[in-house]
Amino acid sequence: MTHTASDKIIMISGANRGIGKAIAEHLLTCGYRLSLGVRNRESLSDTVLANNKNVLVCYYDAVDKESAKAWVEKTANHFKRIDGLVNNAGIYRQVSIEEGDEEDLDTMWEVNAKGPWRLLRAAFPWLKKSGQARVINIISLSGKRLKSEQSTGYAMSKFAARALHQGCRQSGWDHGIRASALCTSFVKTDMASDVTSSLPEDITEPADVAHAVAFLLNQPNNAAINEFSINCRLEAEN
Asked: Is 154 a catalytic residue?
């Protein structure tokens, strides 16, 4: 059975700002119904996402081990189905071999790798029921290569997230689940402003990432896209 965008329920983590917020706003215009996982509901109070009948806003914090299951349950109870998950929530901390705190490494592991794993585990039964579910894992190009020693710990967490993506593809394929890894370079967000000296006008816009997510969600089961890279600069490695 084929569903239109207006029938599909998409969960988006980290939707209160940056890339996640841009994805949510664009998917809403595309006709999707959304369940947004955020740490701070008030941050959406003055946006088109607030008080919208097609949007459910729920508490989700990747370091809160119980929040993933609770968010999935609230989404399923409200919409009676789940057709997609965008694993977007992520953090960056500078941790290299010789510098940085292990606590920061632990937090990146929790948010960037284990958080998406918990969400997938909780949502998988519903995604399997959909028959044509989509999982978009916002991985970062740091899940493919390391450009700076200060980003070693971040890349470690993102390499793990990419392994999770591959596991999702394997586990979900026979159930119609198609997973895509969206690997970005610097995107114009608060997080990127702390780690790049590039001019703002030279950095990818969150809205452009949002359009890529919509494209990936709209592909049929027989045209699966494993990996989709977006970069604001030339890199020979890619």
From this structure: yes
